[in-house]
Amino acid sequence: METMMEAPTLHDLILQIAKGDEASFRTLYDQMYPLILNYLRGKYGRSLGEKDFEDICQHTFIQVWFHAKKYRGKHTDASARQWMFTIAKNEALKLLRTMRHLQSSLDTVFSDSDFSDNDFSNLKHTLFPSLLPSPEDEAIQSVLIEKIIILCKRFPKREQDIFKMRFLHRY
User: How many CA atoms within 13 Å lie on the side-chain side of 37?
Assistant: First the structure.
């Protein structure tokens, strides 16, 4: 008589990840990535883009790997899913705070310029493609962008237009 092994629950997978089990991590990733991606699209679809969602998912799984030992969920898939969705939500909020802080910094620097809001975002994404930097990277990026913008404001109008075309509009 052939016995079928039951598939491990999400809860069990997280407990195995806490022990460093890479196969369990791959299984959890395969099962949960599409669910987390869809959750983020539904919750933050108006504020973030597809690339942001993918980055947040990656950061979510990094957090799962490093914090699986702290998981204290009930022995249910619902509890494990909720834990991971909470991590994804926190990662999304971290990105939104970073974007808001950067926008505020750029607004202050460019308050008297003719750069649009979209230009600020394009400049950040062109110069710093990693969307979820560490707090140290975030601070450095903000200072660098402010300095770049201040220097750009000193350019003659034609050179400012060339800068915008190259770095903001990616021509």
Answer: 12
Q: What is the DSSP letter of 166?
A: I
Query: Is 13 within 8 Å of 75 (Cβ atoms)?
Result: no
Q: Residue 1 has what pLDDT?
A: 46
167 neighbors 126 (Cβ within 8 angstroms): yes
* Token pair 């310029």: residue: 113
Q: How far is the C-alpha of 39 from the C-alpha of 89, rounded, in Å?
A: 9
Distance linking the first and last C-alpha atoms of the chain:
67
Mean pLDDT, consecutive 10-residue stretches, the chain (171 aa), reads 72 96 97 97 90 92 95 88 96 84 59 56 63 65 74 80 71 61
Q: Which of 84, 38, 22 is nearest to 59 (CA)?
A: 84
**What integer pLDDT is reported at residue 171 of this predicted model?**
61
* Confidence at residue 20, expressed as pLDDT on a 0 to 100 scale: 96
Give 23-26 contacts, CB < 8 A, sequence gap 24+. 25/61, 25/64, 25/65
User: CB neighbours of 59 closer than 8 A, spacing ≥ 6?
Assistant: 91, 132
Structural element, H or E, at residue 32: helix 22-44
pTM for the full predicted model: 0.63
Distance CA 77, CA 79 (A): 5
